[in-house]
Amino acid sequence: MTSEPVDALPGGNEVVIRASLARHLAFSPVAFAVTEGPAHEIRYANAAFRQLQSDGQIAIGLHQSEGEEPIADLTPLLDRVFREAETVRDELLAPADGGEARWSCTVWPLDTENDGHPEALVMEVRDAAYLEGALARQRAIAERLLLGALREQDAARDAAEEGRRKAFLASASRDLAMSLDLEETREIVRRRALPRDGTWCIVDIIESNGSIQRLAVVHPDPAKQDLARTLADRWDPQPDDSIRTLSVAPPGGAEPLIITHDSGAALVAVAHGPENLATLQAMGFGSMLVVPLVVRAGLLGAMTFVTKEDDPPFSAEEVALASDLADRCAMALDNARLYTEADALRATADEANRAKSDFLGNMSHELRTPLNAIGGYAELMELELRGPITPEQRTDLLRIKSSQRHLLALISEILNFVRTESGRMEYRFAEVSVQAAMDDVADLIDGLVKEKKLELDRRWGETDVMVWADPNRFRQILTNLAMNAVKYTPVGGGTISISATATADTVLVQLIDAGIGIPSEKFEAIFEPFVQLADGLTNRKGGVGLGLAISRDLARAMNGDLTVDSVVGVGSRFTLTLPRARQDTTPP
Fold this sequence. Notes:
CATH topology of the largest domain: Beta-Lactamase
Strand content: 15-25%
Distance between the termini: 91 Å
CATH class of the largest domain: Alpha Beta
Largest sheet: 5 strands, antiparallel
Helix content: 40-55%
Strand order of the largest sheet: 2-1-7-6-5
């Protein structure tokens, strides 16, 4: 906006601008007029202003209106503006009879003279009801804006509070997840407290035998920690404590219990003696909030949060926060307890397993000596060093020697199992020819294959491959698999196939039989120690059920594996996987 007169406007369009402005002012619904000099002689008035004058609603000097007295005289307002040369806005005009003001007037001066008085005054007259309506609308808008700002402020405060609550619970969860040791978890739990300044906590734990243990109290004020330590030494839970009330309640009915600081009886009841009461009062004992520690419908104990003396009672938000914290503490305590129990059971099982292995090892060693003696004396008798024997006696001696060799093989199998299970098996890694090892095993079982009228199909490529393994253990695995294949394939039952394939990194040796097959749900069970699938003594094929267990342990110890795929009534395929040997291969 410019303060220059219309005559000074640039562009040569003064006439057009003056005409447009005159039309706008003439037909404006707002009463508008211009006066000159201290007498307020009207130099311009639009139609709306003249209409108010003719209706006797307003006047400038009472002499300008005839007949009925005007409702409002503008002269005092114009005099003041002319005298002070300052704009007056939205001033209500009181009628001459002292009634309710109906009009509102705004007056501003134009072109102040050298003596400080303006040359002219411009006035605008509006209906006061319109102004009141505008003010009412402004107030409504302001109220809505204020309410919106308050709601936004509340939302921001709630969001900040929720953020602090989540941060508090996240910090507690992180601390509680740091350890599965029961004592360490209890130490973390007993140091929990609500974020209210000066609040401390009492933790009572229900042990597995039903007794209640009160953990040592931790006070946030270092100056009062000595009092808390003294209190913990002599302040034991009693049957009438709040924790006892919770412990006899059904798990679903254990709810947070608030005891305000106004209840002196509650303080006396939990103190159990004047000495404890004095210590509690010195520590600043205010309101109490007892929250149960519940997990999987079982009550583990309770956490009692205590405020400073004269602090306000716990709010609903603090009760909810305490309940969430107690849930996390209960879960951590339960996990630590389960872990401790599981660790104790595992230690017991390991000890029993070691005792079993020691027993099997000692028993096997003890049995080898008399069995070797039996074999030696049988050979002496067979050589007739003790005198001549009959053909029937020779046959009996052969049976004795066969049974003795069978027992020695079983004992050797048990000793191998004990060594692999205890980690005492020694491995000497080297490059091993797969073809040579399979040839050795094929030659070993050739007699048994022919005896059972079976066929042996050897399938390996023209180019030999090498595995990185212990030669003796590698052959031991192949021998166990081959002997099982012959053992479980019926007489004249078909073909036993042994083959090898290689990739860039591994060698796969497969042995396929046409035996009785293995149910799919037993694929893993057959690799467990002392497992044989046939039921009853008459169906057992000999052995103690350790061959496959030992074979898989040996394969995995050499960075390989042993798996099975089988169809009942068709046969089984065992696959031995071992690392392929390379020039730069070194022992693991």
